[in-house]
Amino acid sequence: MAEATILTTKRLVIGQVLVCRGCCCGAVDRGRPEVPTEWLKAEWRRRGLLKRLQLTISGCLGPCDVPNVIVIASETSVHWYGNIAGMEMYRDILDWACASVAANHLLEIPKSFAGHSIEPFRKDAARG
């Protein structure tokens, strides 16, 4: 059996922010809060964040019963947040991203995200 090889990249980042824009997230026609994806992408580029903190506008991340999901991944952790609504929360994540890039590591998530943490994975695989 061959030894596993780990691929490397020259473009190392401090983390990645995934913003769901799938079937439910941002579906204002279905009564869901807007996800300002074009604004986020433009601001991320304008502020020069992409090379250090990747932004990914994704298709459905699930769970679909919680709208407007954001996932923040780093070398050591993955955090899920849901029900992200209003421009203020998206501005908070942008300001957090700028401060994290300046600090060269992910900082504590903005206080406005308190109460928005979700756990989408089943803890006990035996449960139905």
Counting H and I runs of at least 4 residues, what is the number of helices?
2
* Model regions low in confidence, pLDDT < 50 over at least 5 residues: none
Cα shape: globular
Number of E-type strands:
5
H/E series: EHEEEHE
Sheet of most strands: 5 strands, mixed
Structural class: alpha+beta
**Arrangement of strands in the largest sheet:** 2-1-3-4-5
Arithmetic mean of pLDDT: 92
Q: Calculate Rg over CA atoms.
A: 16 Å
Span between termini: 36 Å
Helical amount among residues, as a percent range?
10-25%
Beta-strand portion reads 15-25%
Topology:
Blueprint: E1 15-20, H1 37-46, E2 53-58, E3 70-73, E4 78-81, H2 87-103, E5 117-118
Structure description:
The chain is of the alpha+beta class and 128 residues long. Helices cover 21% and strands 17% of the residues. It has a five-stranded mixed sheet with strand order 2-1-3-4-5. Strand 3 (70-73) and strand 4 form a beta hairpin. The radius of gyration is 16 Å and the shape is globular.
